[in-house]
């Protein structure tokens, strides 16, 4: 699991297991998480384009308590699974990860065995990521790569009659000719085997003292690397690692030199594969195969180039959560570096598409060479067991492997290396390279804010072009069920294919006009500037031009700060400078602001909070964080999938821009952006679209509801403030479908209510967050996800359904002699009197009780009548000490009222 360095080994093991079980369908999706047996698991999470599940916080049960491994074990058993192997793998992995100690801080500077020793995290997906079944703690310390201990192979003198050899002598330059290397741990075990004892008794097997080469374990455990940089030895090791015991598969040993020699010739024949280096498996030997199987065998392999980095390392983090490759990304630019890496991976793809050969392209088998972090080449190793080919697609004939391994001659396709269908090759490469290696890297870049995942996969689709005969753009591809395998299920499971072009569009409508923001007429504001160090404020009256630039800057990985066009220019320039912008685009053109923008990899969107309870705050959110919000919005709100989004809200605000435009585009719609607020014109335009879903501020929705009449609006989304009850009733009556969304400036949309029955119902939290609030009484609403907590400043209750019920702003609660009085309760009581059209409660100072409530209202009702009405419905502490009747209340465009400012104004006015 990338990012595991910041959590305990036990937490990492549990989280990684839940991610795998959810991805493989053992856990069933449910509200806020999953279920299995009688257990409901709740955890903020996101789904990658590959279907991989990523937990954003620790998993919990329905009571809010942290989930325990024992809870999962019991639930799996109740669901009919045997969880023993899975739980053992989890616990052993956590144990050995803890023994490995903290990660080193200088891993990018390491090479060879020292680098391998520093990569302590283990498999990034498998629940048994560090199982090492068979190793004791002492064995792990002696033979695990993390310890960096010197390992000297045992060299056996073996009767040639019981040895099968191929290629060069594995002992060449290291031991007497013909000697067979064996791992010291393996030899210790073999000596207890009666068959080996019999061979030794008759002199067919001896272990004379040999001062062989000094070696170290690599991340694969069974492969030893010469400390002097020489060849590697892949040795049989009867230790359980992830899903299998690591003895060498007997049929894969003798064929190893022939396969790697053939693969080398294929690479040499194609100039497009010049960037690929094959590490030949040039010598192999297996002893007493009929008697011992693959328990005494060795393959000698050429070493990787100095400084080569395993692909798996690219997705790791440092102890502080920063990406291990962050210095490389900063030096070369995230977009450029990612595109270059994907280009370097092309040979593995081309071998499949043009030569009919599929490599098991996982993170240990592929390495990159680099120059100061800039990828320069691809290195591939370990072919003898896992390489696959399709005879009728080969550019060079395969070697006669049946001459070496006769059982291969009549074996059905798929038994060994030869496959029967082109999609078999795709399945291997897609599972290893796409579903795992690239998904891990995409998650790292996304999670650390370096690159939104959608852009990563767009770059990947460009680098790994579609091969129709291989159906590389299929919507789903099979993935190996690694977690389910520990439960006894061996079948694959379907996984979404991120290389399939998504349904999303980059177009939008301005009223009736279709706009392509990436057309040739749109000005390029970057003009060669470094997008990571460019931050542009947008003060533009042309809504289409402004949205065009937002979309272009987002796509380029630059930062932007959309400012409402009614903002005075001087105030806008001040906002832009406070936001760190170095440029500002206005109707007059692009202007410099006399300052440098801060470095922001892949860009941020800058917005300001509403300021209704204090000074507006500058909020910067990475485009990756916004993409997480969009994906969660889509997952939580499928009801709108077929609706046309119509945005009658400012695109300079997250409601109109993210929930309206960007979500709509992600669904494959070209959203309709309206550049006016004429209610009758809006109703005419809504009639032109299929199943319109209108995004607008509450005041406009209220007017539209009155004009549209009963069921006159197909679907409505409200946001920004709790609707007054009268408004809510009117809008609900005019809408066939009513939705409300709740959020905060710092974290975006957090919850969606679908057809709520009261205005305070904010609905269920989106899947990427966990909301905390009161249970029996209103409490502070906080947001938890991705290791961070945001205090919203709101008060609310989580009800029995899991819905957030809004109770007001903490800053607006009225403190009457130490007891909380909630403005919403007073407002609801006032609005229940026919003739009251709007109401807002606020605090006024009181010399005895500290504060008392007051109420401003609009409506044709005398103060005395309203006072009597409230006296009958409210407690003495809730009853307003002052009523102020106004022609209308000063609600902003979003429907909110600045209560403090209103109170100050009314208190200053003469009574």
Topology:
Layout lengths: L8 H15 L4 E3 L2 E4 L2 E4 L2 E3 L5 E3 L13 H10 L5 H17 L11 H7 L18 H7 L10 E5 L4 E5 L12 E3 L1 H7 L3 H8 L3 E2 L8 E3 L5 E4 L5 E4 L1 E5 L2 E3 L3 H4 L2 H13 L7 E3 L2 E7 L1 H4 L4 E5 L7 E2 L15 H7 L1 H11 L1 H10 L1 E2 L7 E6 L2 E7 L7 E2 L11 H4 L17 H26 L5 H11 L12 E4 L2 H4 L7 E4 L11 E3 L2 E3 L19 E5 L3 H14 L2 E4 L6 H10 L4 E4 L2 E4 L11 E5 L9 E5 H14 L7 E4 L6 H13 L5 E2 L5 H8 L5 E4 L2 H11 L4 E6 L6 H10 E10 L3 E7 L9 E2 L4 E3 L6 E7 L2 E11 L5 E6 L4 E3 L2 E3 L1 H9 L4 E11 L3 E10 L3 H11 L8 E4 L13 H10 L3
Parallel strand pairs: 15-21, 25-34, 27-28, 27-29, 33-34, 33-35, 35-36, 36-37, 47-48
Antiparallel strand pairs: 1-2, 2-3, 4-5, 6-8, 6-9, 7-16, 10-11, 11-12, 12-17, 13-14, 16-17, 18-20, 19-22, 20-21, 23-24, 25-26, 29-30, 31-32, 37-38, 38-39, 40-41, 41-42, 42-43, 44-45, 46-47
Helix pairs in contact: 1-3, 11-12, 12-16, 20-21, 22-23, 23-24
Q: How would you describe this structure in keywords?
A:
6-stranded antiparallel sheet, 9-stranded mixed sheet, 5 domains, 911 residues, elongated, single chain, 48 strands, alpha+beta, Rossmann fold, Transferase(Phosphotransferase), domain 1
Shape: elongated
CATH topology of the largest domain: Transferase(Phosphotransferase), domain 1
CATH architecture of the largest domain: Orthogonal Bundle
Figure out the total of helices.
Answer: 27
Please list the strands of the largest sheet in the order they lie side by side.
26-25-34-33-35-36-37-38-39
How far from one another are the termini?
65 Å
Number of domains: 5
Main beta-sheet annotation: 9 strands, mixed
- Uncertain runs are none
Structural class: alpha+beta
How much is the average pLDDT? Answer: 95
Domain Aerobactin siderophore biosynthesis IucA/IucC-like C-terminal: 337-464
GO molecular function: acid-amino acid ligase activity
Pfam family, one: IucA_IucC
Family: Belongs to the IucA/IucC family.
